[in-house]
Amino acid sequence: MKTLFLAAILLSMTNILPAQTNSSSVAKKKFKRYWLLGAGNSTQSMYDEAISFVRYRGSGIAPSIGLVKGSDKIQRQFIIQPTFVKLTTTRSNGLRPMEVLTTRFFADYQYLVEAKEWNDKMKLYTGGNISLLFNLKRAEQLDNSQLLYDYALSIGPSARLDKIVNWKKRACILSWNITVPLLSHIARPYYLNRIEFIDPKNDFTGDLLKNSSLGSIDKHFSITSGVSLTYPLFNGNALKLGYSWDYYRMKTINKVYSAGHLISISFLSNY
Fold it and tell me: Distance between CA 97 and CA 8 in Å, rounded?
């Protein structure tokens, strides 16, 4: 199953690479292709029974990089977005800091095709996506058991609604999207739901693979939704303002719930 998932990702990534053919000039006219570089602020809320039975909140930076390729009929994008957030709780004090430093790595490939066109200004695209989530948490107050993680490699349906709006004499694209993974390969540490350091033969990769399992929404439920406004520039590039909300629940030995808000701005460079 691991091999199947990796093969699917590699196959998906090859779809977004620009084709080096003699008809490249025709492809450029048909497709709009961009490099994406962005920055944002992520506000997260987490409840993780492996750390403590309280809710943690915090905010931090969220850079992003990716490739976007689209036409009137097909839309594709591959986005990598890490976030670095320091979570705290209202029960924290000088003797009991109760802080959790999170480094979340998120990668997403989305493939959409036109499903319905109401008019020349509004279209609905539907399709699917493959996403990878890896969230490493460091709770220093837990001493030797301070490291734990959430891992999920998921596939599921996705949809996006585009509407052309005129703003400052530009034809901007206002978009709403939603993604709900249905099948996931997930893992959490088995030893007290934390990475085991007592056994010297244990390693991080072996720990992750050993404790992984395949499941549906009963083990890993996730939803991501957001709105964005893409503003085209005179030179063929574009600026994109966005807001997204995501939520996931993972159930292994213990449960973890996480929700986040992301406000971002991205520069899309035409190539």
Answer: 43
Reported as a single tens digit per residue, the pLDDT across 13-50 is 444 444 444 444 444 446 789 999 999 999 999 999 88
Supply φ then ψ for residue 37, to 5 degrees. -135, 120
Helices (H), 61-157: none
**Rounded-to-integer distance, Cα 62 and Cα 80, Å:** 10
pTM score above 0.70: yes
Under 8 Å between Cβ of 122 and 164: yes
- Token digits for 136? 């490493």
Higher-confidence position of 209 and 173: 173
List helix spans (H) across the chain.
Answer: 2-16, 24-30, 204-210
In this structure, the chain runs to a length of 271
CA distance 195 to 207: 7
66-124 residue pLDDT tens: 999 988 899 999 999 999 999 988 877 666 677 889 999 999 999 999 999 998 889 99
Spatial separation of the C-alpha atoms in residues 81 and 104, rounded to whole Å:
8
DSSP string, 95-115: S----EEEEEEEEEEEEEEEE
Measured distance CA(133)–CA(54) in Å, rounded: 23
Rg (CA), the chain: 20
Please check whether residue 59 is in contact with residue 40, taking contact to mean a CB–CB distance below 8 angstroms.
Answer: no
